[in-house]
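Box 3.1 A note on notation
Throughout this textbook, protein chains are presented in two layers. The first layer is the amino acid sequence; the second is a token string describing backbone geometry. Keep the layers aligned when reading.
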Amino acid sequence: MIRRTRFKFRLYVAGETQNSVRAIANLSALCRDYIVDQHEIEIVDVFQTPKRALEDRILMTPTLLKLAPAPQRRIVGTLKDTSTVLEALALEARVLVAGSEIETS
């Protein structure tokens, strides 16, 4: 049996701005397409919880933090370039086939 990796993301946004809405949609699509049922997404609005953003050293939004698995990663922007985001998150070599994870080279 293959043990599935669980991905944890925290996305910092600024209310319902256009860039925030795009980042949420792009991250949701990426997770749906590449890590089905293997992810958790936490959305943090910096307007509602500014102290939390400061604790995580968030200076711009949208900012995505990949919390697990290690190593942690940080990406700033709307996440529109899927191939670049996959590479930055070290997901570019993952393919999901019938619920199984296969590494490609």
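Residues 23 and 78 are 4 Å apart (CA to CA). The chain has one domain: 7-103.
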